[in-house]
Amino acid sequence: MKTTTLLGNTSNSPKEVKVPMNPQPQTDLQKRIQESVNTHASKTQGRKQDYLVIHCTATPEGRNVTSAEIKIWHTSPPPKGNGWKHVGYTHIFHLNGGVEQLVANDDDGWVDTWEVTNGVAGYNSNSKHICVVGGLSKDGKTAKDTRTPEQKKSLEKFVKDFHKKHPTVHICGHNELASKACPSFDVQAWLKSIGIKNPKIY
Ligand SMILES: [Zn+2]
Questions:
Q1: What's the pLDDT tens digit per position in 60-113?
Q2: What residue spans define the domains of the chain?
Q3: What is the dotted CATH code of the domain comprising 51-193?
Q4: What is the pTM of this model?
Q5: Fewest CB atoms within 10 Å of the CB: 42, 104, 159, 160?
């Protein structure tokens, strides 16, 4: 009797394609993202993000600052730099409004160990730090809100997107956590002016 098989036979089965479950990371960033995916399964590493802290580079009005300079200032051994293990900020806002990312960040509301930046002593494990280029008048000494219209625009977009995603994270200036002039403008007044209801956390 003739039989029909609906399942077909193995010789007609599609070839099995072997997809590696954990492909070897190609770049440092991919490696860190992979590590993040692995650690987030249990959330055993890092801390919940409590603060988004705004800084300035404390450089004279109109002077451009490159990410390479910031890396030297923060991570080179003294006297050239501070000798920190981590750079101080996750993102910098250039005079022309460009936003540059210095440290990998998955923006998931947690501060993973690989995302830590050295912005404010005592607030680094639960904060992310961002930085606006400028903050001093042309004399290089006096604190001044030197934000260009382009910087204000890109900072506003960044902060609004961030707040939408993380409404419980408190956004503040470095000067609210330490006795500093940084970032040389009143962050709370500015947040109010752009319609952000900043949560108080403590
Ligand atoms: Zn600062």
A1: 999 999 999 999 999 999 999 999 888 889 999 999 999 999 988 888 888 888
A2: 51-193
A3: 3.40.80.10
A4: 0.76
A5: 42
